[in-house]
Specification:
heterodimer, A: alpha/beta, globular, B: mainly alpha, two-stranded antiparallel ribbon, disordered N terminus
């Protein structure tokens, strides 16, 4: 699944605060999203997953600032451009139409006093003013059908829908302008596992039909292994490993990924003890020197404490398709 | 599946996240103390208000002339002798403004304090205690809400001779708390259902403690803006009273100056110096109070406060305000911030990884 790139993140740095008070929440992240793929972004709380997603869409609340980097967006037809250098108007046009985002706990984002139909057609009115009321309604119905809600719920108010249905309405709303990239920030965390599966299955189906790309943020790695094409693991604001979902699951190279993978049980295969990762995530204000994972790493050795490992292709047979930042796996070709 | 705590400690001997950062803390604590003043709006407002209060105290002593004393310079424009010019009787306008400051500030601040105390007491109590208390206190504020303050003041000051500033402050304070009480009641109603308030109630905290420590700090911005609003209202009421000639015309305040300027047709005589200084004094006082109000708003909201500086210089050279949805981009260079050092050649085969595996260590 490696088509053309649709979103290229180059050395993105995000800070909270300014000057010497700044906390570097995302550091030198390089990531490429290809057309039509589902890219999973996993890591513990505070590892910078959400900050990365909000940073690349420039949605961070103050005191968040982007202190460097580029986010190159490749529209379907047209020249690629840097999202970070767009002005306010350009940004408004870019959002939703090109990149949509489904937030954490999005089901509470619906306005309780307006009908679903009003909230679905509202964005069409803003972005495609030439559309008639009739065709707006038709599109909204179609969207509801796509996400598996009967179109006769168009006139329902949010309180008349269940949590899962509201979440699906939000996903439908995100897709209504047919964006190329959809960013999902833990969209199913508040739902039960059955509903999670249903919604994600639907999302994958929709992606195959509409051809958008997804950046899926979660701390639930088992979910990602099942649904995504590629997975990037974040730790302390950096990407520490990035690989195809299957190869990451079968043999992860970074000890942190291995720790994440061994913290949930496999359905099949031999029984093994779950170990988890001892310690707690690093404080972004006082990051350890060298590799930020080294205080918790079970395989720490000489260079880890002093040298920051570079993300790059490792020296393994499938090394050209994956990257890792770990001294255990000497890098042949650094990224970025 | 659970990790024994002993193994956690063994794996990270004092170098976990908990033990790490002890950097940059003293500097931060130092900044905290003067943070309110470091806000430009609040600082400006406080300085101006401070000047007003200073003149309210020392005004009558530093005034160059007796405000009542007549001189031969009739309706004279500003000069070295009379900085703000003179009135039709040759009285010094500058001295009148200085002497008048005390009455205005006294009435404004006293009425503001009285109204704020009443609105907090009645509003928060009504909001927190539901049922009969709420009903009766709400009814009380509704009654006070429809009492027209200005006509009442006119009647009372006319009926009580020699009441002076204290009486005016008292009446303004006692009639203008109702709006604040209603707003505070509404906000308290919403706050008392929040989880942290419910939790402290479930913990058996005393009612007064819940109100003082859980609810009141959340109301600071509303209380402060209510206070500032009442002070402005009281000042304008006091000036209005003097302007329309109610109360003691012999006691100087800015309204008295305007009263005489109006009655002697200063505008028709082109004697702008007669009414402009008093008008500007009112305007600047209002501005200073509003600035303090903005400052308080930013100070009590932790979200606004944590930002510290809200303006940043972006990559394109513009200075922009930080706001939600348009994160500023400080630099557009795609050069990595942490420069990859020359990769040290590591012989992974020869290096023996230090085994810190938790299971082996504990077993």
């Amino acid at each position: 699944m490696s088509g053309d790139p649709v979103l290229e993140i180059k050395n993105l740095n995000v800070d909270y605060g300014l000057g010497d008070q700044a906390v570097h929440a995302v550091r030198d992240v390089n990531l490429t999203l290809h057309r039509g793929e589902v890219l999973g972004l996993a890591g513990e709380s505070g590892s910078g997953k959400s900050t990365l997603a909000y940073g690349l869409t420039r949605l961070l609340a103050p005191p968040g600032v982007i202190s460097g980097g580029e986010v190159i967006y490749h529209p379907e037809n047209g020249e690629p451009y840097d999202v970070l250098s767009l002005d306010d108007n350009g940004l408004r046009k870019f959002r939703w139409a090109e990149t949509a985002i489904v937030f954490q706990g999005a089901m509470n984002s619906l306005n309780p006093v307006h009908k679903i139909s009003t909230q679905l057609t509202d964005v069409l009115q803003a972005h495609e003013p030439k559309m008639t009321a009739h065709s707006r309604n038709a599109r909204a119905r179609e969207m509801l059908k796509l996400v598996g809600i009967s179109p006769d719920r168009m006139d329902a108010y949010p309180h008349q829908l269940s949590g899962g249905m509201r979440q699906r309405v939000m996903i439908g709303m995100a897709l209504i302008l047919q964006p190329q990239v959809v960013i999902m920030d833990e969209p199913t965390t508040a739902l039960d596992v059955v509903m999670q599966r249903q919604i994600l299955g639907q999302l994958i189906e929709l992606r195959e039909r509409l051809g958008f790309s997804v950046i899926f943020i979660t701390h639930d790695l088992s979910l990602l292994v099942e649904f995504s094409n590629r997975i990037a693991i974040m730790y302390g604001g950096r990407i520490v490993e990035e690989a195809q979902a299957t190869s990451l699951y079968r043999d992860s190279l970074h000890p942190y990924s291995a720790g994440l993978l061994s913290s949930f049980p496999a359905l099949r295969g031999p029984r093994r003890e779950l170990s988890g990762i001892p310690g707690s995530p690093p404080d972004l204000k006082g990051m350890p020197t060298g590799c930020s994972f080294h205080p918790r790493c079970p395989k720490v050795f000489d260079p880890c404490a002093d040298n920051i490992p570079v993300l790059g292709n490792p020296d393994t047979p499938d090394g050209s398709t994956r990257t890792v930042a770990c001294w255990l796996h000497p890098v042949k070709q650094p990224v970025g | 599946m659970t990790i024994p705590t002993s193994s956690v400690e063994q794996v990270i001997p004092g170098q976990g996240a908990m033990a790490q950062p002890e950097t940059a803390k003293p500097a931060k604590a130092k900044r905290k103390r003067f943070r309110f003043v470091s806000n430009a709006k609040a600082a400006t407002g406080l300085i101006v208000l401070g000047i007003y209060i200073l003149f309210a105290i020392i005004g009558p002593w530093v005034a160059p002339y007796d405000p009542d004393a007549r001189s031969s310079a009739l309706t004279a424009p500003p000069s070295a002798d009379h900085w703000f010019g003179t009135t039709h009787l040759g009285q010094d306008v500058f001295s009148q403004v200085l002497v008048g400051t005390r009455g205005v500030m006294l009435v404004g601040l006293a009425a503001g304090v009285i109204a704020t105390v009443f609105s907090v007491l009645i509003g928060v109590t009504a909001g927190y205690l539901s049922g009969g208390w709420d009903e009766s206190l709400s009814a009380l504020s509704n009654v006070f809400l429809v009492i027209p303050a200005l006509p009442l003041i006119i009647i009372v000051t006319a009926a009580v001779p020699g009441g002076g500033d204290v009486l005016v402050a008292l009446i303004i304070g006692l009639t203008s708390w109702a709006w604040g009480a209603r707003i505070l009641r509404a906000q308290t109603l919403s706050l008392r259902r929040r989880d942290y308030v419910e939790a402290s109630r479930a913990n058996g905290e005393k009612t007064w403690r819940i109100i003082l420590f859980e609810i009141l700090p959340n109301l600071t911005a509303i209380i402060a803006s209510g206070f500032v609003g009442t002070v402005i209202f009281a000042v304008t009421s006091e000036i209005t009273l003097a302007f329309i000639g109610i109360g003691t015309v012999s006691e100087w305040n800015w309204g008295t100056i305007l009263f005489w300027a109006q009655s002697q047709q200063a505008l028709a005589q082109h004697a702008w110096w007669w009414f402009v200084p008093a008008g500007l004094a009112i305007a600047f006082l209002g501005t200073a109070l509003s600035l303090i109000n903005f400052g308080i708003d930013e100070f009590v909201s932790p979200r606004l406060r944590s930002a510290g500086k809200t303006k940043v210089k972006t990559a394109s050279g513009h200075t922009v305000r930080m706001r939600v949805g348009f994160t500023p981009v400080l630099s557009n260079s795609s050069a990595p911030h942490t420069h990859a050092r020359p990769i040290p050649t590591i012989n992974t085969a020869a290096a023996t990884p230090v085994n810190r595996g938790s299971k082996e260590a504990t077993q």
